[in-house]
Amino acid sequence: MRWDNLTEGTTGPAALFGADAVVTRTFDTPEFRGITFHEVRARSIVNRVPGASRMPFEWTVNPYRGCSHACVYCFARKTHSYLDLDTGVGFDSQIVVKTNAPGLLRRELGSPRWGGAHIAMGTNVDCYQRAEGRYRLMPGIIEALRDHANPFSILTKGTLILRDLPLLQEAAALTEVGISVSVGFTDTSLWRTVEPGTPSPAARLGAVRTLTDAGIECGVLMAPVIPFLGDRPEQLRATVRAVAESGATSVTPLVLHLRPGAREWFTAWLREHHPHLVERYERMYAGGSYAPTWYQRRITRQVHELAAEFGIGPSRRGEARRIVTPERPAEEAPAGVTQLTLL
């Protein structure tokens, strides 16, 4: 592995951590078997989203790199290549842990240069993946945000967020807090192969129910809707019905998109599990990372109609995170399509 491009002495952007601040650990316990943790002391933790990004927020905090959820489609896989780590199995099993994240965030929030802008979490890799059960970075992060009354949002597939429910309630009493849980489908056979390291869809929707019952508004990102595997009308109906029954405040469908890094890994998975679909995917995504406009519109319309039938409305972009979203230039997204790029 090469850490050189992110350590002191580089000629590019400021180093993310010192060259002598990396400790590699493995733990011989069932939940962490086969996973290597690289503990680092980050030099900064509040990251500005590049201006060209399509993300509907400006600032993020990411206490981890890599994710044991092992979702085969995860768009963040490409980021592991910056460390000369494999974007396939390496992304799933080589986890970078920014152990000083809570204290560093508290310091940065207290800087006179910080203006109190909204901070999004879980938008690159999941901050409530299994590693969080051991490292417990999120309680300190939420406490820092609470103490500075700084608005924030969390996107997760992890039910571990319920551990921090009291802190979320305290923060929500002082500032805007938005929670979104990602559930793209309720098909358990699909879940076991495409999201093998995540809690089940039923468990995630159970977390939505607990959050909403506790007074924390929680939306569901129906993400991703996977072409030819999770998009049959009966599958969409079952998922939206389950979302409605969970008490979610909104549901937003997001069609699978395949960026470089994720695309190669997903295609390899497809060849192994559904070889008959490889050519169909090649045709559907021949134009780039996104599914065709007609397909996105069809899925969006179907989900919105089902949401209305079951008594929940679609969310507008950013609504679940209570943030203001500037209008996207017309050339960046087809008109009439709800298509975020979080997953």
Molecular structure report:
- By secondary structure, the protein is of the alpha/beta class.
- It has 11 helices and 11 strands.
- Strands 3-4-7-8-9-10-11 form a 7-stranded mixed beta sheet. A 4-stranded mixed beta sheet has the order 1-2-6-5.
- Helix 8 links the parallel strand 10 and strand 11.
- Helix 2 runs parallel beside helix 4, helix 4 packs parallel to helix 5 and helix 8 crosses helix 11.
- The longest helix has 17 residues.
- It is globular, with a radius of gyration of 19 Å.
- The two termini are 26 Å apart.
- The relative contact order is 0.12.
Provide the gyration radius in Å: 19 Å
User: How many helix segments?
Assistant: 11
Largest sheet: 7 strands, mixed
Structural class: alpha/beta
Sheet with most strands: strand arrangement: 3-4-7-8-9-10-11
Termini distance? 26 Å
Shape: globular
Overall mean pLDDT: 87
